[in-house]
Amino acid sequence: MNKALLVAVDDDPDLLRDVERELGNRYARDYEVRCLGSPAEALAILEALAAAGEDVALVLAPETLAGQPGTRLLAEVRRLFPQAQRVLLIGWGRLGHRVTGELILEAISTGQMDHYVVRPALPPDEQFHQAISSFLLSWAEARHRVPYTTDVIGETWSGRAYELRAVLERCAMPHRFFLASSPEGRAVLGSVGARTRLPVLVMPDGRVLEDPSDVDIARTSGTVVGPEGDEYDLVIVGCGPAGLSAGVYGASEGLRTLIIDSGSIGGQATFSSSIRNYLGFPRGVSGAELARRAYEQAWVFGARFAFMHSVTSLRHDDGTTVLDLDTGGVAVGRAVVLATGASYRRLGVAPLEALQGAGVFYGAAATEAPLVAGEDVYVVGGANSAGQAALHLARYARRVTLVVRAATLAAGMSHYLVRQVEAAPNIVVRTGTEVVDGGGDGWLEHLVLRDRADGAEERVAAHDLFLMIGARPHTAWLPDVVERDPLGFVMTGPDVSAEASRTLGRPPLALETSVPGVLAAGDVRHGSAKRVASAVGEGSIAIRLIHRLLAAAP
Questions:
Q1: What is the pLDDT of residues 223-269, one digit of tens each?
Q2: Which GO terms describe its molecular function (predicted)?
């Protein structure tokens, strides 16, 4: 396999030499480094590389190049190498400069570039390399060039093979899927010996699971909760941003903590390909990466995790809360945080539901993105997650159509994302529109769109459909004693009924439910902001409230 290229362009020879030194010293063993002195030369070489089928991982350009903004060259890179990371080089003195900040925001918002980095200083400039390494990791993950990848081999795209991919997606676990009849699938199966049952999972450490259940996968990671009813200071149900935040703060403050999830880390946040407005990440961070970091934090502080376990019941018993699991396990908590989040609402169109995993996906399905190369795909949804998915898929697809029920994108999407979506040359936005039908023979082939204003319907060709609509809280398993609003979101604090407050014998705490010692945080809570940062904040606040509850307990 040819090495992927790192390309740096600068018409100042001294500045280019500094970049060439750092790239060559650190990355030349694994990448081919090209440093070029003019935008015309760079564009010609990039055109030739694209024609030859070479792979460019990263392109660096300065603020000004041949008297023009360097972002002009970076914008051209998108056309030639959609997955390449396009990075603007800025001088140290420009960091914090108002005009430079405005230029960067404008260029990112209009899709001309992806990131920025301060020029390297005296070697070794580890801050420079930390940034470059993060850009290369983003590129490698998009290209499935990361270690510790799980392979899934199935007979068809849909059915249990799709369910396993969805599980791994929720785990933020890098994975690849191959049909058993494909050359790649036959090669993987050949390397692990004859297998009688499909689908097959080949784990990064070489273990092979034939048609595994979720519990089988849980056992491989040693996260099975037994029936003994072990007691914890804190049991968290849900491992999205709110649950992970509660886990980090709870474990770090000495609480014996167990986190249970029917999938794995991240929740819906793992479907966000780039969160650019999260505090402390000026260059953006993917939801999967944020979840992985939070998981490691909680793990190091001593939190225990139980993945692939569904909680089936909750009951208050003599000052503790008992949780029964679908695996037969039992967990007992002096305090409980419900952070089960919400999932995307089902479309409810039978012909499309039948094609789930075969062109129809709930969520961004980042691992499916390379399969849409050159195709027409549709994303349904009007919130930030849908905008991020459309931008991510646009790096691969010929055209992405964003279908929004509302009259404008601004009704549910952050301003910076609206600008990016509107500026993307291969994204079409159809507001006031909904998907009402569709179908295909083994794979999605067409959709039927309806104009909500006049009812007119249109049949369109479509290779893939990504659904990111509404929010359905994971609360059907809760007993009636846990009060919920008509949509199923959990009532907390002042929203809890007066009758429940009398049963508690006191006003409930801010995030406390109608059951004493049971709190709710994040998207599952009635009135929550439905943002990652808000969920993280609520998770941390829940721990502060739990300390008050535990201190007052007899």
A1: 678 888 889 999 999 999 999 999 999 999 999 999 998 876 777 76
A2: thioredoxin-disulfide reductase (NADPH) activity
Within 10 Å of residue 187's Cβ, how many Cβ atoms? 12
Distance CA 405, CA 450 (A): 10
Please give the full DSSP string across 342-376, using - where no structure is assigned.
Answer: EEPPP---HHHHTTBTTTEEES--GGGGGGGTT-E
Give the HSE-up count for residue 160: Cα atoms under 13 Å, Cβ half-sphere. 13
How would you classify the pairing of strands 115-118 and 85-90?
parallel
The rounded distance, in Å, linking the Cα atoms of 397 and 374 is 5
Give the three-class secondary structure for 455.
Answer: coil
Given the DSSP bridges, would you call strands 464-467 and 360-362 parallel, antiparallel or unpaired? parallel
State the pairing for strand pair 257-261/304-307: parallel
Quote the tokens at residue 260.
């249970």
Bridge partner residues of 459 (DSSP): 448
The region, left, alpha or beta by phi > 0 then psi within -120 to 50, assigned to residue 200 is: beta
Tokens at 293, concatenated: 């970091």
CB atoms within 10 A of CB 479: 10
Kindly write down the DSSP assignment for every residue of 164-227, as one continuous string: HHHHHHHTT--EEEEETTSHHHHHHHHHH---SSSSEEE-TTS-EEES--HHHHHHHTT----T
The residues that bridge with 7 in the sheet, in sequence order, are: 34, 59
Name all domains of the chain by residue range, CATH numbers in brackets: 5-142 (3.40.50.2300), 150-212 (3.40.30.10), 230-343+472-552 (3.50.50.60), 355-467 (3.50.50.60)
The answer to whether 170 and 264 are in contact (CB under 8 A) is yes
CA distances from 429 to 105, 345, 406, 412 (A): 22, 21, 11, 14
Q: Are 449 and 430 in contact (CB under 8 A)?
A: yes
Alpha carbon distance 241, 305 (integer Å): 14
pTM given for the model:
0.77
Classify burial at 344, counting beta carbons within 10 Å of its beta carbon; exposed 0-12, middle 13-18, buried 19 or more.
Answer: buried
Query: Rounded CA gap, 336 and 151, in Å?
Result: 36
Spell out the residues 6+ positions from residue 460 whose beta carbon is closer than 8 angstroms to its own: 376, 378, 401, 446, 447, 448, 449
pLDDT tens for 422-452 read 999 999 999 999 999 999 998 999 999 999 9
- Residue 385 amino acid letter: S
